[in-house]
User: Fold this.
Amino acid sequence: MSQKPLRGLRIVDLTHVWAGPLGTRMLGDLGADIVKVEAPLARGPALSPPGGVGVFAGGEPGTEPWNRQSVTIKLNRSKRGICIDLKSTHGKDTLLELVRVADVVIENFSAQAMNNLGLGFEVLSDVNPQIIYVAMPGFGSYGPYSGLAAFGPSVEPMTGVGALLGYSKDQPRNSAMALVDAVAGVSAAAAVVTAVNRCRETGRGAKVELSLHEAGVSLFGEFLVDYQLGAQHTPIGNAHPRYAPHGIYPTLGEDQWIAIACPDQACWIALRDEARLWTDVEQFDEPSHRLAHRPALDKKLSEWTREQNKHELQQRLQAAGIPAGAVNTAPDVLEDAHLKERGYWVDQALNGQPTVRYPGLAIKLNQKERSVGRPAPKFGEHNREVLQEWLGSTTADVDELIAQGVLLDRPPG
Assistant:
């Protein structure tokens, strides 16, 4: 822990669902002391798919399902957890005491939620003038959309990405993973580090606002520029507007595929020679001719790839200098030799669950250093530890808050 760059940074984490918890998990993996403050019902239905499918490792909720949710365990690694009823007077006072000794507060509630609780930036900065307050409302705190409900799958198409996905303008698609949440989470981690650096230079805190919507729009700048210059983009599936062949092609086995791209002439020549499918090659050696004959090229290439093992073909094409990658399923990714060799995965067996492989941290500070921290906390697991360590609370002080129902270690009821 002593080698991690964010050691000593104290963060009060009020985030929920995906975007916020992803950002704070990254900061925790890098050494920040993250105190995850949960509401009594924070691990409720919002994180559970219909029927609970996929929520619990092994498919069993056990006697404490709130401590066995895979989503919670995945996103709350490298954090300590406490549960405070922020709707109570003593709960608010307890949070303000934590803010007094913290460096950062981060939340991704709706735009007015913290103000409605009486815990907005002005209140927090009165308690701690150096506090960095990061807010992640779906559409920001002002503007025509600021009052709208925001959920990743509904925000994503508003960024413009839906107009680019799919196979025709009559079949718009989402990414199926609420891409804007992931982008906002990474952006939040960067925002915290940037604001902390500025605070150390100026001695002043700040309110940082990060809109889920704007984080998504920022990904697609080149298409917006193209439109202003007169270009029109429509969904073209896995094809590319300038390169051919370029797409996803079937391989040996049921529902097995490989991605192949030919971004330049050298790649085309290598692919042409490797596949040996084209006898009359001259008509395709010009890029414009390949684009004009894209369907014929794709058909020919598919006939060849269909007889190949996707992983072996990936290696073969890459060896020839052709960008190619097997379309991996979840089992493929989990068993990927490259990820294993780099020590990416985090194997954990928590709260009575079987051992499960969770995503690690993509950032490696020292070649093979394992940059992850403690396992995800149980619900309210560190109520006593955090208050005693951060605030100097006595055992009697914590016992009184527990007796009043301000601190909880299991959801009510």
The radius of gyration is 25 Å. The CA atoms of residues 106 and 134 lie 5 Å apart. DSSP finds 17 helices and eleven strands in the chain. The first strand starts at residue 10 and ends at 13.
